[in-house]
Amino acid sequence: MITLTTYLLLNGNCEEAMQFYQACLGGELVVAKVKDTAMKDMMPPSMHNKVIHARLNAEGIHISASDWLRPDQIPVQGNTVCLYLNGSALELKKLFDSLSAGGNITDPLKEQFSGMYGALNDKFGIRWMFHTS
Fold it and tell me: Which of 70, 73, 105, 130 is deepest in the core (most CB within 10 A)?
């Protein structure tokens, strides 16, 4: 069985972002920093506190992420990653309210022709869409 997990590349605030998502979504969060892996000897000391891999497993939700680990390249933040949540109206309202803290609501959560829909960019610039039919 193949599963799809969203992977986020963050610019130095991966651990903070993943802790925020855990606070909103629940679940188990595992965070590994460069200094705690075999990659430590391959990277400069300035990168040792960066997150090499983080994974959040909540009921039906899986998110993986890391800090940007390519010092020779500049990351471009944008809405190229979208996290799509589908559930009951009550569940969506709670998650929408949590994830919008410090962010920008682009589409308020409301009833549409295809069900309840809303979208926002959270405080880390990550786009979330919410839908129930």
Answer: 130
